[in-house]
Design brief:
This protein has 87 residues and is mainly alpha-helical. The protein has helices spanning 4-17, 23-30, 32-53, 55-75, 80-84. Belongs to the PRA-PH family.
């Protein structure tokens, strides 16, 4: 099972090593605007899943939202500590 910190480390490694065919690399290359649009889409899917599709589907959608948020963090040069400072 992945953790929030573990996922960030994995994504940071992909950002640094840029493996061919990586969806994460493709998102980073698309830029903050495209990633932001994906976050808005995923947030809506979280809401709809939580309201209409049950906890399992909501958890799946939340995991996707967290992934895209972390990609945006990397694209923006933010670290986990930058975010944790505001919790």
């Amino acid at each position: 099972m992945k953790t929030f910190d573990g996922l960030f480390a994995e994504l940071a490694d992909k950002a640094a090593t840029r493996p061919a065919g990586s969806g994460t690399v493709a998102q980073l290359d698309a830029g903050v605007h495209a990633i932001g649009k994906k976050i808005v889409e995923e947030a809506a899917e979280v809401w709809m899943a939580a309201e209409h599709e049950g906890p399992e589907r909501a958890a799946e959608e939340i995991s996707q939202l967290l992934y895209h948020l972390q990609v945006l963090m990397l694209a923006s040069g933010l670290t986990l500590d930058d975010v944790y400072a505001h919790l």
